[in-house]
Amino acid sequence: YRVSVAKPFIVNSANPAIPGGAAVVPLLAATKGVSTFSTRDPNPQFNGYFSYQFFDQEANLVPYQVGTYHGTKKVFNIGGGVQYQNRAMWHRDSNTVTKKIDTVTTNYVTAGLDVFYDAPINKEKGTAISLYASWLYSNYGPNYIRTFAPMNPGDSKSTIGGNYNSGGGSSFPINGTGNTFYAQAGYRFKNNLLGSYGTLMPYVMSQCSKYNNFQDLMVTYDAGINWLLKGHNSKFTLNYNNRPFFFQQAKTDPIAQKGRRGAVILQYQVSF
Q1: 3-state DSSP helix/strand/coil percent for the chain, to nearest 5?
Q2: Between β-strands 127-139 and 75-94, what pairing exists: parallel, antiparallel or unpaired?
Q3: How many angstroms separate the CA atoms of 88 and 44, rounded?
Q4: SS3 per-residue string spanning 100-113
Q5: Cβ atoms within 10 Å of 35's Cβ, excluding its own
Q6: HSE value, Cβ hemisphere, 13 Å, CA-based, for 119
Q7: CA distance 139 to 136
Q8: What angle do CA 180, 185, 186 make, to 5 degrees?
Q9: In a 10 Å sphere around its CB, with 0-12 CB exposed, 13-18 middle and 19+ buried, how is residue 24 labelled?
Q10: pLDDT tens, 102-135?
Q11: Measuring CA to CA, which residue among 244, 237, 248 is closest to residue 163?
């Protein structure tokens, strides 16, 4: 189990300073009908994650797990967690008493369940399978969406225009108010498949999210292969990602999927 009480930083309430010493322009306190993180002094945030480990135990010396043990352990875990912060979010909406537009604060809560299975198929050969799946419920207030772009060299703003679009470059709406299901699966080939150059581990993964202000599901697909030169200590990863693009021309239109985009990512990891 892991439990914590954190005191978050105050969310930045101003635009970055303009080069040349121009004045900093404050952002609006909140947006009508769209929830954002409040810039008021934040309340404490409560976090908890609890799991039952049926077989081999995972290490707990670091705040994350390795993802796969490459056939050296048999792991089967079921877990659940929750994160809560009182009055963390705000938006502008009609006051039920005065009927005027006012700032409305809401609580932030996220809860989820996950399952992890990682085990050898043939210990002598080193073959193994790794499976992970999770369900996540998030409530950041009405119409909250977070767009994420891993290692994005392009402009974070799309030039397509409209009242809303899901961004340029490699960005896509990774999180928001609603429900998300995520799953991944990988297979590790035998030891020394490539001789002294290690072995391979192909994988697939997918995320399916239903956000409260999207007309369509947000579904991403990934497929790739790890070239394990020396386990997690030295490896290359080649990944293909296919993601949807969402667009809304006017505020009265639904936010709907308008197509899909792809990205190829090559990365190298070294750990010691």
Answers
A1: 0, 60, 40
A2: unpaired
A3: 9
A4: CEEEEEEEEEEEEE
A5: 26
A6: 10
A7: 10
A8: 150
A9: exposed
A10: 888 999 999 999 999 999 999 999 999 999 999 9
A11: 248
Pull the structure tokens for residue 102. Answer: 């006012």
pLDDT band at 94 (very low <50, low <70, confident <90, very high): confident
DSSP state of 235: E
Written in H, E and C, the secondary structure of 7-59 is CCCCCCCECCCECCCECCCECCCCEECECEECCCCCCCEEEEEEEEECCCCCC
Q: pLDDT for 159-201, tens place per residue?
A: 566 677 776 677 889 999 999 999 999 999 999 999 999 999 9
With a CB cutoff of 8 Å and minimum separation 6, the contacts of 39 are 10, 11, 12, 13, 27, 29
Phi, psi angle pair for 29, to nearest 5°: -60, -40
Q: Which two tokens stand for residue 11?
A: 């969310």
